[in-house]
Automatic annotation (TrEMBL):
Residues 55-124 form the HIT domain. Pfam families: HIT. This is HIT domain-containing protein. InterPro entries: HIT-like, HIT-like_sf, HIT_Hint. SUPFAM superfamilies: HIT-like.
Length: 156
Protein backbone atom coordinates (compact mmCIF):
# COMPACT_ATOMS: atom_id res chain seq x y z
CA UNK A 1 0.00 0.00 0.00
CA UNK A 2 1.31 3.43 -0.90
CA UNK A 3 0.97 6.11 1.77
CA UNK A 4 0.44 9.74 0.96
CA UNK A 5 -0.17 12.70 3.21
CA UNK A 6 -3.89 13.31 3.79
CA UNK A 7 -5.46 16.45 2.45
CA UNK A 8 -7.74 18.47 4.69
CA UNK A 9 -11.24 19.49 3.65
CA UNK A 10 -12.27 23.12 4.05
CA UNK A 11 -13.66 24.00 7.51
CA UNK A 12 -17.19 22.68 7.93
CA UNK A 13 -16.93 20.27 4.98
CA UNK A 14 -17.24 16.63 6.10
CA UNK A 15 -14.22 14.51 5.20
CA UNK A 16 -16.32 11.67 3.81
CA UNK A 17 -17.52 13.96 1.00
CA UNK A 18 -14.05 14.87 -0.25
CA UNK A 19 -13.72 13.50 -3.78
CA UNK A 20 -10.49 11.73 -4.64
CA UNK A 21 -8.62 13.41 -7.47
CA UNK A 22 -9.30 11.54 -10.70
CA UNK A 23 -6.48 9.66 -12.39
CA UNK A 24 -6.65 8.35 -15.90
CA UNK A 25 -4.12 7.09 -18.37
CA UNK A 26 -3.10 9.65 -21.01
CA UNK A 27 -4.80 8.92 -24.35
CA UNK A 28 -1.47 8.56 -26.21
CA UNK A 29 -0.24 5.98 -23.69
CA UNK A 30 -3.57 4.14 -23.93
CA UNK A 31 -3.25 4.01 -27.71
CA UNK A 32 0.39 2.88 -27.78
CA UNK A 33 0.33 0.18 -25.08
CA UNK A 34 -1.09 -3.08 -23.79
CA UNK A 35 -2.09 -3.13 -20.11
CA UNK A 36 -0.30 -5.76 -18.00
CA UNK A 37 -1.69 -4.82 -14.59
CA UNK A 38 -1.22 -2.66 -11.52
CA UNK A 39 1.56 -2.64 -8.95
CA UNK A 40 0.88 -0.74 -5.70
CA UNK A 41 1.76 2.63 -7.26
CA UNK A 42 2.08 2.12 -11.01
CA UNK A 43 0.18 0.77 -13.95
CA UNK A 44 2.48 -1.54 -15.96
CA UNK A 45 2.17 -1.44 -19.75
CA UNK A 46 3.86 -2.97 -22.81
CA UNK A 47 4.63 -0.65 -25.71
CA UNK A 48 3.13 -1.88 -28.99
CA UNK A 49 6.44 -2.30 -30.78
CA UNK A 50 7.87 -5.78 -31.26
CA UNK A 51 11.30 -4.38 -32.17
CA UNK A 52 12.09 -4.02 -28.45
CA UNK A 53 10.84 -5.56 -25.20
CA UNK A 54 9.60 -2.20 -23.88
CA UNK A 55 7.62 -1.52 -20.72
CA UNK A 56 6.16 1.59 -19.12
CA UNK A 57 5.40 2.22 -15.48
CA UNK A 58 2.84 4.98 -14.98
CA UNK A 59 2.30 6.09 -11.36
CA UNK A 60 -1.44 6.41 -10.75
CA UNK A 61 -1.13 9.91 -9.28
CA UNK A 62 -3.19 12.76 -10.74
CA UNK A 63 -1.20 15.63 -12.21
CA UNK A 64 2.20 13.92 -11.74
CA UNK A 65 4.52 15.13 -14.50
CA UNK A 66 7.94 14.74 -12.86
CA UNK A 67 9.25 12.23 -10.34
CA UNK A 68 9.58 15.13 -7.90
CA UNK A 69 5.79 15.57 -8.09
CA UNK A 70 5.54 12.37 -6.03
CA UNK A 71 6.10 12.54 -2.29
CA UNK A 72 9.19 10.81 -0.91
CA UNK A 73 7.37 7.60 -0.02
CA UNK A 74 5.88 7.41 -3.52
CA UNK A 75 9.31 8.09 -5.04
CA UNK A 76 10.75 5.17 -3.05
CA UNK A 77 7.84 2.96 -4.12
CA UNK A 78 8.42 3.93 -7.76
CA UNK A 79 12.10 2.96 -7.50
CA UNK A 80 11.10 -0.38 -5.97
CA UNK A 81 8.69 -1.00 -8.84
CA UNK A 82 11.26 0.05 -11.47
CA UNK A 83 13.75 -2.39 -9.93
CA UNK A 84 11.22 -5.23 -9.80
CA UNK A 85 10.12 -4.74 -13.42
CA UNK A 86 13.70 -4.24 -14.64
CA UNK A 87 14.94 -7.44 -13.01
CA UNK A 88 12.04 -9.40 -14.49
CA UNK A 89 12.56 -7.92 -17.95
CA UNK A 90 16.29 -8.64 -17.89
CA UNK A 91 15.75 -12.22 -16.72
CA UNK A 92 13.05 -12.93 -19.32
CA UNK A 93 14.79 -11.30 -22.30
CA UNK A 94 18.45 -12.04 -21.44
CA UNK A 95 19.16 -8.55 -22.84
CA UNK A 96 22.58 -6.91 -23.06
CA UNK A 97 21.50 -3.60 -21.50
CA UNK A 98 18.47 -1.96 -19.89
CA UNK A 99 17.49 1.59 -20.79
CA UNK A 100 15.45 3.26 -18.04
CA UNK A 101 14.18 6.80 -18.52
CA UNK A 102 11.45 9.26 -17.60
CA UNK A 103 11.38 11.75 -20.47
CA UNK A 104 7.82 12.92 -21.04
CA UNK A 105 8.65 15.31 -23.87
CA UNK A 106 5.57 14.25 -25.90
CA UNK A 107 3.34 12.87 -23.14
CA UNK A 108 3.35 15.04 -20.01
CA UNK A 109 1.93 12.34 -17.70
CA UNK A 110 4.72 10.87 -15.57
CA UNK A 111 5.81 7.53 -17.03
CA UNK A 112 9.03 5.55 -16.86
CA UNK A 113 10.35 3.58 -19.84
CA UNK A 114 12.11 0.28 -19.15
CA UNK A 115 13.53 -1.06 -22.42
CA UNK A 116 15.49 -4.28 -22.92
CA UNK A 117 18.25 -3.62 -25.46
CA UNK A 118 20.45 -5.93 -27.46
CA UNK A 119 23.60 -4.99 -29.32
CA UNK A 120 21.90 -6.53 -32.36
CA UNK A 121 18.69 -4.44 -32.19
CA UNK A 122 17.82 -1.99 -34.97
CA UNK A 123 18.64 1.12 -32.95
CA UNK A 124 21.77 0.01 -31.08
CA UNK A 125 23.57 1.94 -29.65
CA UNK A 126 21.23 4.90 -30.21
CA UNK A 127 17.97 5.54 -28.32
CA UNK A 128 15.01 3.59 -29.72
CA UNK A 129 12.76 6.56 -30.52
CA UNK A 130 12.14 7.19 -34.21
CA UNK A 131 14.65 4.67 -35.56
CA UNK A 132 12.11 2.16 -36.92
CA UNK A 133 8.34 2.39 -37.38
CA UNK A 134 6.60 0.33 -34.68
CA UNK A 135 6.28 -3.36 -35.51
CA UNK A 136 3.04 -5.09 -34.49
CA UNK A 137 3.42 -7.86 -31.93
CA UNK A 138 2.57 -11.45 -32.78
CA UNK A 139 -0.50 -12.09 -30.58
CA UNK A 140 0.76 -15.38 -29.15
CA UNK A 141 4.29 -14.11 -28.50
CA UNK A 142 3.12 -10.95 -26.72
CA UNK A 143 0.68 -12.93 -24.56
CA UNK A 144 3.49 -15.34 -23.57
CA UNK A 145 5.72 -12.34 -22.78
CA UNK A 146 2.99 -10.70 -20.68
CA UNK A 147 2.27 -13.95 -18.82
CA UNK A 148 5.96 -14.39 -17.98
CA UNK A 149 6.22 -10.78 -16.81
CA UNK A 150 3.08 -11.02 -14.69
CA UNK A 151 4.50 -14.09 -12.89
CA UNK A 152 7.90 -12.44 -12.34
CA UNK A 153 6.52 -9.16 -11.00
CA UNK A 154 3.88 -10.85 -8.83
CA UNK A 155 0.79 -9.89 -10.76
CA UNK A 156 -0.49 -13.43 -11.18
Amino acid sequence: MVWSAPTRPPPGYPERHMPEPAWSLHSRLKEDTIDIGDLPLSKVLVIKDAHYPWLLLVPRQPDAVEIIDLDEVQQAQLMTEISRVSRALKEITKCDKLNIAALGNLVPQLHVHVIARRTSDAAWPRPVWGVMPPLAHDATEVQNFISALRRKIWLG
